[in-house]
Structure formats: structure tokens, C-alpha cells
Amino acid sequence: MIEDKNPQRTSIAQLGEFGLIDHLTKNFEINQASTLKGIGDDAAVLDFKDKKVVISTDIMVEGVHFDLAYMPLKHLGYKAVVTNVSDICAMNAKATQITVSIAVSNRFPLEALEELFQGITLAANEYKVDVIGGDTTSSQKGLIISITVLGEADADEIVYRNGAKATNLLVVTGDIGAAYMGLQVLEREKQVFQVNPNSQPDLELYTYLIERQLKPEARKDVRTLLHALEIKPTSMIDISDGLSSEIIHLCKQSKVGCNLYEDKLPLDPQFINVCEEFDIDSTTVAINGGEDYELLFTIPIEDFDKIKGNPNFSIIGHMTEESEGIHLVTRANTKIPLKARGWNALSESE
Ligand code: ADP
Ligand code: MG
């Protein structure tokens, strides 16, 4: 489905390990004051002065986390950075540096790795993170990419998963479910392509969904938005596995329950249309879909006036005592227990 626009194939064996590293990393710039030494020595050197340092790692394996049949390498590089930066945003911190480690089989020519690093560079510039190191090695089969991200925050700014209180409001940024439906569209087109390689997909009706799947963004703006509103969340998490599963994480770690309201879920019109086309229940996808990289957080009910009507945020529920459990309150006003990845949770009771 993705055409090979770059017919030139330079074998990476030709360059050797050091030549390859130099080639891939020569364009990275340093912008953060905390980066004293980036790529080029045995280790990078950082100085965060009086800030706290937050750090997170994610690994992505070909065939498990991505499929190169419809994921262009440039997008993969971009997304790998974004998913890491999103974890730092979810701590209410600012991402500052990343390291990038890759294992590649000789099936990948130099041009493929250049594309991957173009995506990494784009994201590094967009999120102003310095690439300060990494590792490059070979794999027997396929591509593995592991990114570690560092970020900074004042000690009193950091928000954990375990601070939610009963009566807190539950808030989500942006809209949810679109990335999952984007994946469904891409999977369908891949199957069509396998049957008829000459078919050219018409993806116009799905642009937003596909963009949410192939080029997600981390909500680095939320830290600033909340700061301006003088709101500090009591707990926060990013939506990588799906709303339902993230709510359960917040509840378990904070020892509270939750009522999530079906009619409050923020859904994009294109998402609703495509759910209809695929004959899938939009609520089921919205709460179980995943990969939205929006932020989910709780705030004291006293902050309601500061956030109500703000287009960046939707109040989708409230926390309760732990003993009340974790529920979705449907439009028909019935309560369904929320389950992580509970694809059957809705259909069972409908
Ligand atoms: P070492 O032998 O100490 O592991 P390497 O030769 O692997 O060093 O790497 C040389 C430099 O290039 C180091 O600064 C390392 O962090 C950096 N580097 C290696 N691979 C990558 C990569 N994929 N992305 C970014 N930096 C890398
Ligand atoms: Mg090394």
C-alpha cells in the first residue's frame, strides 16, 4: 500500500556501525540548557539544577506494535517520540531529552533508516527535546525501536496517578477513539490491497482518523493551559491503552471509585460516522480503543468554574468512594461496571 518512493538501496553493512551512527545522528541539534553534552562521548551529561527529573522508556517491536505495511517509517519515528513525550506530559512535566536505541535487520537499507530518523528529527524539533544518545545494533529479524525520555518539573508540579479523591471531577483533553478507528480503516485497506495490489485507496473520508493513528501528538500544551487556569490536577495519566483501562489505573492507585457518563464522552463527528460505517458501537470504541495520547486527569470540584466550557477539556465523570466501584453510566441511565479492554462489557448488557 505504501509505495517505495525511494528505489535507492544502500546496504547498512557498507557503512559499518560507526559510519551508520554518524550518518544518522549528525543533524541533531542541542537546544535545552540542561544538556551539557549530547551525542559523541561514552555518556551524555545533563544538569537540571534545582528541577526534579522524570524519566520514562517505551519499546516498540515490528509486528507487535507496528506494521510497516501501512506505517511509513517517518511516521513510526515521529510516533515513537510522541508516545514517550506523552508519558512526561502525563506527569505534568516538560520533556527535555531523549535517547534512541534501534535494532535493525539487514532487510532495511540506509534509506529506510534515514526516513525513520527524519521522523524522529521532526518530532524532536516539534517537542524541543534534544536527542542525546542511544544505541545501534543489528537484529535477526525486523525493527525494534526503544526510546527513553527525560523531563523536568518543580517538585510541587509533578502529578501522580494516586492523588484522586472521591468527589473530584474526571476530565479528558481532546476527543477519544479516533486512533483506533484509524487503525481499523488502515487494516481494511491493507486487506483490500493484498487481494488487489492495483487498487488505490480513497481515504478522504478518513483523514482525521488516519492522522490520529499515524501521526498522534502529545498534549504538551496542557501543562501550560492548566497553569494559566490555576488548576493542578490531583491525578493524571495519558490514554495509551484506552480510557477504560486508564480510569481503572487512576481508581486503583488512588483508592477511589468512578462514575463515567456515556453522554459526556468527547467524540469527533468523523469518528461517529465511521463507527456507523463499520457497524461498531462508538461508546465501546471510545472507552476501549487506545492510542489517543490525550490526557486524563482529576481536579477538585471547586475548580469546576475554571474549566467548564473550555474547548480543550471535557468533564466526563466524577470520582466516588472506592466501595461504590467503577461504572459507566449509560444514556439510558443504567450503570455498567467498567472493565479494562472490556469489549464484551457493553454488548453483554445491551
Ligand atoms: P558506545 O560504544 O559507547 O556504546 P556507540 O558507538 O554505540 O558508543 O555510540 C556513539 C555515540 O552515538 C554515543 O553518544 C551514543 O549515545 C550515540 N548513538 C548511538 N546510536 C544512536 C542512535 N540510534 N540514536 C542516537 N544516538 C546514538
Ligand atoms: Mg553503543
Give the helix/strand layout.
Layout lengths: L11 H14 L9 E3 L7 E2 L5 E10 L11 H17 L4 E11 L5 H18 L2 E9 L4 E11 L15 E5 L4 H18 L11 H8 L6 H8 L6 E4 L4 H12 L1 E6 L7 H10 L3 H7 L6 E5 L4 H4 L5 E9 L4 E4 L5 E3 L5 H7 L1
Parallel strand pairs: 4-5, 9-12
Antiparallel strand pairs: 1-2, 3-6, 4-6, 7-10, 7-11, 8-10, 9-11, 12-13
Number of helices: 11
Distance between the termini: 38 Å
| CATH topology grouping of the largest domain | Phosphoribosyl-aminoimidazole Synthetase, Chain A, domain 2
Largest β-sheet summary: 7 strands, mixed
Shape: globular
**CATH class category label of the largest domain:** Alpha Beta
Strand order of the largest sheet: 8-10-7-11-9-12-13
Q: Proportion of β residues?
A: 15-25%
Fraction of helical residues: 25-40%
Secondary-structure-derived class = alpha+beta
Protein architecture, described:
The protein has 350 residues and is of the alpha+beta class. The protein folds into two domains: 146 residues, 2-Layer Sandwich (60s Ribosomal Protein L30, Chain: A); 181 residues, PurM-like C-terminal domain (Phosphoribosyl-aminoimidazole Synthetase, Chain A, domain 2), CATH 3.90.650.10. 35% of the residues lie in helices and 23% in strands. The chain has eleven helices and 13 strands. The strands form three sheets. A seven-stranded mixed sheet has the order 8-10-7-11-9-12-13, with helices on both faces. A four-stranded mixed sheet has the order 3-6-4-5, covered by helices on one side. Strands 1-2 form a two-stranded antiparallel ribbon. A hairpin with a 5-residue loop joins strand 12 and strand 13. Helix 1 runs parallel beside helix 3, helix 2 runs parallel beside helix 3 and helix 4 crosses helix 5. The longest helix is centred in the middle third of the chain and has 18 residues. It starts with 11 loop residues before the first helix and ends with a helix. The relative contact order is 0.15. The C terminus is likely disordered. It binds adenosine-5'-diphosphate and magnesium ion (MG). The site of adenosine-5'-diphosphate has 14 residues, from helix 1, strand 4 and strand 5. Adenosine-5'-diphosphate (ADP) binds next to helix 1, strand 4 and strand 5. Catalyzes the ATP-dependent phosphorylation of thiamine-monophosphate (TMP) to form thiamine-pyrophosphate (TPP), the active form of vitamin B1.
